Amino acid sequence: MRKPFPGMTTMILALLAATGVVGGLSGCAAGKASIPTADALGAARGLSGGTDTAALRRGRAILVTECATCHRLFLPAEYSPEQWGGIVKRMATRASLSGEQAVDLERYLKAASRAAK
Amino acid sequence: MNTEPRSNRSCSFVLPFLPHGKCGLLPVAAVLALFVLCLGGPARAQESPPDPQDLKIRELEKNVGALEGRIDAMDRTMASLGGSWTDNFTLGGYGEMHANFGEGSAPDQFDIHRLVAYVGYTFSDWIRFSSEVEIEHAFVSSDSGGEISIEQAYLDFLLSDPVNIRFGRVLVPVGITNRKHEPPTFYGVERPSFDRVIVPTTWFADGIGTFGGLGPSLKYELYLVSGLDGSQFSAVNGIRDGRIKERASLHEPAVTGRLDFFPFVRWPGPGGFLRLGASAYYGGVDNGNEGKNPGIDGEVRILSGDFEYTVSKFDFRGAVAHERIHGAKEIGNGTASGIFGWYLEGGYRLFPGSWKKGKLAKSDAGVFARYEDFDTQHRMPDGVAKNPAGDRREWTFGANFYLTPTLVAKGDVQFRDDASGKDLPTLVNFGIGWQF
User: Fold this and answer.
1) Which ipTM score applies to this complex?
2) Is the dihedral of CA A103, A108, A111, A113 positive or negative?
3) What is the number of structural domains in chain B?
4) pTM
5) Where in the sequence is the domain holding B23, given as residue range(s)?
6) pLDDT tens-digit profile of B113-124?
7) Has residue B212 been placed in a domain?
8) Of B40, B67, B82, at which residue does a domain stop?
9) How many alpha carbons lie under 13 Å from residue B182 in its C-beta half-sphere?
10) Domain boundary among B82, B99, B119
């Protein structure tokens, strides 16, 4: 038989509750998305859709699905647009991104970084 | 499959009259930008709506943006194809050093736990090589715990978004930490214990497979790889010692794969990042080093789920795995027929924004709590006694301080318990880890 682990159930419940409550509250408090959608960015830049918005949409998808696979998700606002250029160039090879994917990612990160300033 | 170099395609599309490889788009962009500025003056002066020149300016701005993108693409492709051969190399690495202190008679030690080098090479815009070579515990000899191993060495053939081929030594894509194990990517000095005995990390295997995206929010990996050595399974360490690190037998290969769903790709959600993953592993266990098989008739099947959720300053992650071992009784060593475990972790990044200046401009800090419940003796074969030491629980509380995003100092305390009734020493750990 297991010996009792003091407060285990209580602490698990507390952690789960904290996850839900904090997640919900911070979601409400976040307000401005930290990873803005392509449509939101496009609207901010005065784009009316089409190629530019599509490229931003692809870039955002790459950020979410590829970058955070190997390390924590760095938000666009954490680096300047100039810094993102060098970072993407260095990381694209390591992440096995194609040339077009790297360009889409860089355009999204630069646009979102500018928008966050 | 299209193997045509991207730079040629882009050049001939944009400026077909330019010589091969001479992509003079920068001047064009500059001229367009100047043109935009020239148009801008009169447009502002006449303020009568609707002004067709405003529309023209907007159109030209879009064109300039598009040209900038093409220039970036061509610069990158030409750098990889036409630059110095050294430009095609990618170098990187990670490492971690720990100080572990145990209550009572538990050993206190300083451990240069891992020192890892990444080397990659780009053969073309669709063929790439990646590798990871690791030294553990600083010294390697026949009677030390240290080891040198190649943890990854594979070629990627990038064919299309949904189908790409990977060949060589790959990471088994089960759980979170096995694929994402660089110190800045996780809370705590040591990896979760779940990731030591339930999904043993670092777990690699040799084989071939495919990976890619099934739409913008769904990714997959699927491999046929070398299997585990069932003769090394045990009561307390589970399948961990069954990993074959040298010349893996291909006698009974395994199939393994995973699916990751990113619901916030299209929907921003509550300002965060969410990944939901499911993974599986199935294969025989009659494998050994140098093709010398132990002669075990058995199979192992693993089903696992995991998630990562980051919202505002909060980080959450968790994983669960169930393992079914057929032939456990024949394997012996107290091997269970069922292994089960899970963990849940919550963290909060609390570094004030007002402190992020000067040397601390890129710094961050977070505190976390993690609960793990795992049992390598979850279900026993008929007639085999359960070892209660396999049934464990752990609480870990600690903090990470990121001097830069990829250099982290860590500290934590671990309270442990098992079903044997013995008092397991509380552990206090400090460490520093990096990735570059």
Assistant:
1) 0.70
2) negative
3) 2
4) 0.78
5) 6-82
6) 999 999 999 898
7) yes
8) B82
9) 21
10) B82
